[in-house]
Design brief:
- The complex is a heterotetramer.
- By secondary structure, chain B is an all-alpha fold.
- Chain B is built from three helices and no strands.
- Chain B is flat, with a radius of gyration of 16 Å.
- Chain C has a two-stranded antiparallel sheet.
- In chain C, helix 2 packs across helix 5.
- Chain C is elongated and about 70 Å long.
- Classes of the chains: A mainly alpha, B mainly alpha, C mainly alpha, D mainly alpha.
């Protein structure tokens, strides 16, 4: 850790991991409700638990992104944060607002929450992933603006690296596109059209800039490869991301009442979306192979490579599976979508945040560069358990989805939704088991922070063999 | 100056050849000539034009190795796919 | 001769490509807006009927229906598609009857929709809203069949 | 880079070639989609193809080929260290590009005056999508050529270092190349 103000990242990372645990617990609850329909009914209905599951995911990833930014921006800019106090203040505001919102979901019926928060003044609630009360949304905008001011001014003051600029663009885009969350017309087609400007242009657009810049930062730090090379590829990859991803939004405009030309535009451009992910995988492995030194933090390198692979599989391959409009005609809004969502979010965004935490946390806790070998071994156990479980969760949901598509949409005598759900129970049960293994991986991951803290740091063994 | 001429002269010939192929294509077009013979002549012309642009204008003729073939492979691919799609309808 | 592969060029392509494709996206959005009046059933949204549908959308949102159901394929996958529920049930009365009759404590061992205690006006509003959605002209008449 | 010896890499910055490949991929998919969709709607496509103006397409093809040739001359000039010549040929190429835009613009004006848009029918969806996507590439290519031309006028390139000229030229030839396929495919083949 070179700059004192980087320290604020630690709070953000701790909160991120804490909320991550919450997300997984609620994931297990809704997973159980898929098997036992009356589980926790009517105390915690499915929609409430799901809302907690998805909202916690978004909030903890945002905590992770902000933490990552507070750690890497000063180091890249070679100057302290301009307003570390603001970063601290915003942390507590965001955490309080987030916790209050989640408690609101859990403690009062959603309709009552809408009434309490005066949703009728500016109705924005009740849309998928944007369930937060309007007042929370305004809070998010304020937090985002303060955050942008903080890192933006720091970047302006210091060295302007490509990584910092790309990160700043990503974060700015995140804030700008979130504003479409406030547009909620009665016209359902328009509502959905611009809803995707938040959701798609986030996860298949500006978030990928954030992902790319964090990945590039970790690769520079852990491989010692020339910054020039890494930054050049970063530009190429994010250019491909946006070239394919912006028009790729069209793969959400097939069946919501939008005109038919989107079938073609959406199919063609979104079919190209795996290309940048593939480039990212090749890039990450290339850089690690060309490394100038071995970094003692093996766990961080593992997370970084894992991100590249799993993002390609989850976002690239599983996305491509159902992105072409003739396929999507059958798969739209089924468990296939859920399968893709789980692996893509884990592979791209969960893993990059954990990679950054893995890289930065030892320094934030006063280490030179890495945790002890013992701690790292445990962390890598967590990596494998979580990653393998998410692969199985994805496979089981894909199985469920294929069967659902066949029985409900493709067969000669389509069956009703609820009948089909009973027939695919087995997959849901298997998914829940994989979910518990995921939780065990997560717990081992957390334990790794408390194990071997007294032991000496891992050291580099052997010299780099140039390839 | 000789190297410049060596580069330009073939390009000029290619340019004139491209113009003449274009006129033939246009002639087939304005007279609404249809059927396999005309359609695939026109497609063949287009592929030849593409290859000439790649080889001479883009300078791929002077390249050895995989990049030499990017345009060729692309033309081959879309040429076959378009042929496959048009074949039965003509 | 060493091949040029410069960061400056990569940067230019990033900025140029992004601007290019974003403008193209805006152009397609403009096209979409001019095509929507034929498709999105906006005529239903005028007059007192329109107010009822607006109220219905509010009921839909303030009870987080999307947290279990899909609407034109978007939402959660825990409960049936509702973009075509009007066609599946055949009438707004059937929809109202279904929502009003959900048991307060659920059905043992099975998924059940919560009892939302909606007023008669709210029930009418949400049923009208669902009717309006079912009359949006989706491409290829999605969903593929009445089961959704 | 004046001799006739073989190179390992194509002219210009390698990044542009990565994007040329990406662009060709997109256009290739679009062309294939056109061809196979036509195979399912032969009558519709053949009927509406007749409403297109082949004379305008001829002028546009000639304009792009000529423009490409002018760019070749610009590259030849800069390789001979002639910045002024390079600048002039690039201006001429830009003029041809402008001619393309005007002619294509008049075609669009005609279609729009008849109320034709992407939702009219499948043929027009493809015709407008393909040509408009290409149209925007012409605009983008012209912006690139203009930037290169202005730098050339200021003497920013030389026989020793003119990667920028070759980069812009490669992109422009790609725009030309795509039209070589688009013209027969959409306007002529039936």
């Amino acid at each position: 850790m070179k700059y004192k103000s980087q320290k604020v990242a630690k709070l953000y990372f701790i909160a991120a991991i804490g909320l991550f645990v919450g997300q997984i617990l609620f994931g297990l609850i809704i997973g159980a409700q898929y098997i036992w329909g009356d589980f926790l009914f009517p105390e915690i209905p499915f929609n409430v638990a799901r809302m907690v599951h998805t909202n916690l995911l978004i909030v903890w990833l945002l905590f992770g992104f902000m933490g990552a930014a507070y750690y890497l921006v000063p180091e890249e800019a070679e100057t302290d944060l301009v307003m570390p106090w603001l970063a601290n203040l915003m942390f507590w505001i965001f955490l309080t607002a987030g916790a209050a919102t989640i408690l609101g979901y859990l403690l009062v019926p959603y309709a009552q929450l809408a009434e309490l928060t005066k949703n009728e003044l500016l109705p924005t609630m009740g849309r998928e992933f944007l369930e937060q009360p309007t007042i929370t949304k305004i809070g998010i905008v304020i937090v985002a603006l303060s955050f942008l001011a903080n890192i933006g001014l720091t970047i302006l003051k210091g060295r302007k690296t490509v990584i910092n600029l790309v990160l700043l663009m990503g974060m700015t885009g995140l804030a700008v596109f979130f504003l479409f969350a406030f547009y909620n017309p009665v016209n359902v087609v328009l509502d959905k059209y611009y809803w995707w400007w938040v959701v798609h242009l986030w996860v298949e657009g500006v978030w990928e800039l954030i992902l790319g810049s964090i990945l590039a930062f970790i690769l520079i730090k852990t491989t010692g490869v020339d910054r020039e090379v890494i930054e050049k590829w970063l530009y190429v990859i994010i250019a491909m991301v946006l070239i394919t991803g912006i028009i790729g939004t069209g793969h959400h405009y097939y069946w919501i009442g939008t005109p038919a030309f989107w079938q073609w535009w959406g199919s063609i451009f979104s079919a190209m979306e795996p290309i940048p992910f593939f480039m990212m995988t090749v890039f990450a492995f290339n850089m690690v192979n060309k490394r100038r030194r071995n970094h003692p933090n093996k766990a961080a390198v593992l997370w970084a490579l894992g991100t590249a692979v799993m993002a390609f599989l989850g976002a690239g391959v599983w996305g491509f599976l159902h992105t072409l409009s003739p396929v999507n005609y059958y798969t739209h809004g089924t468990q296939i979508t859920a399968a893709h969502g789980h692996m893509a979010f884990y592979g791209a965004y969960v893993m990059i945040v954990l990679a950054m935490i893995s890289y930065a946390m030892p320094m934030l806790r006063g280490r030179e560069a890495a945790n002890s070998t013992k701690s790292q071994v445990l962390e890598m156990w967590g990596f494998w358990l979580m990653t393998i479980s998410i692969v199985f969760i994805t496979l089981f949901l894909t199985g469920a989805g294929i069967l659902q598509v066949y029985l409900q949409r493709f067969a000669d005598n389509p069956m009703p939704f609820m009948v089909v759900q009973e027939k695919i129970q087995l997959f849901y049960a298997l998914r829940e088991i994989a979910g518990f293994i995921f939780l065990s991986g997560l717990l081992i991951y957390i334990v790794s922070f408390f194990v071997g803290s007294k032991e000496p740091e891992a050291t580099i063994e052997g010299e780099v063999v140039p390839t | 100056m000789t190297t410049k001429k060596m580069f330009l002269r073939p390009c000029t010939w290619v340019y004139l050849f491209l113009l003449s192929l274009t006129f033939v294509t246009w002639f087939i077009g304005v007279n609404n000539l249809s059927g396999r013979a005309f359609a695939f002549t026109v497609l063949g012309f287009a592929l030849i034009k593409g290859q000439l642009i790649g080889d001479y204008f883009m300078g791929l003729k002077q390249v050895a190795g995989p990049w030499r073939w990017v345009i060729f492979v692309w033309l081959l691919l879309i040429g076959s796919l378009i042929t496959a799609a048009f074949w039965k309808t003509l | 001769m060493a091949q040029a592969f410069t960061k400056a060029m990569a940067r230019n392509i990033f900025y140029g490509g992004t601007a290019f494709f974003f403008l193209l996206f805006l152009a397609l959005t403009f096209q979409t807006h001019s095509a929507l009046p034929e498709l999105d059933n906006r005529n239903a949204l005028t007059g007192p009927q329109g107010e009822m549908i607006a109220k219905g959308k509010q009921v839909w949102e303030e009870n987080d229906c999307i947290g279990c159901h899909t609407l034109l394929g978007e939402g959660a996958y825990f409960a049936p598609e509702l973009g075509n529920v009007y066609k599946r049930f055949g009438s707004t009365d059937a929809i109202k009857g279904f929502i009003a009759s959900r048991p307060k404590d659920g059905v043992p061992g099975r998924r059940s929709m919560p009892q939302f205690n909606l007023s008669e006006e709210e029930l009418t509003a949400i049923a009208e809203f669902l009717k309006y959605v079912s009359e949006i002209k989706t491409a290829r008449n999605w969903p593929p069949n009445t089961q959704g | 880079m004046t001799g006739m010896e073989k190179n390992r890499w194509p002219p210009g910055d390698l990044v542009i070639w990565i994007f040329i490949m990406a662009e060709l991929l997109v256009f290739g998919v679009f062309f294939t989609a056109y061809a196979f969709t036509r195979a399912h709607n032969v009558e519709l496509f053949d009927t509406y193809q007749l409403t297109l103006d082949r004379n305008a397409a001829l002028i546009n093809t000639l304009a792009l080929i000529t423009s490409s040739y002018f760019v070749v001359r610009a590259v030849a000039d800069i390789r001979a260290d002639d910045s002024r010549g390079c600048f002039r040929w690039l201006l001429a190429a830009l003029g041809m590009g402008l001619l393309f835009l005007v002619v294509k613009g008049l075609e669009y004006k005609h279609h729009f005056s008849l109320g034709i848009d992407l939702s009219t029918n499948t043929f027009y969806m493809f015709y407008l999508s393909l040509t408009f996507f290409h149209f925007l590439h012409v605009v983008l290519g012209m912006v690139i050529l203009l930037a290169v031309a202005l730098k050339a006028r200021k003497g920013g390139y030389s026989a020793a270092e003119h990667t920028g000229v070759e980069t812009g030229a490669s992109y422009w030839h790609m725009v030309d190349l795509v039209w070589m396929i688009l013209f027969p495919l959409v306007y002529v083949m039936r």
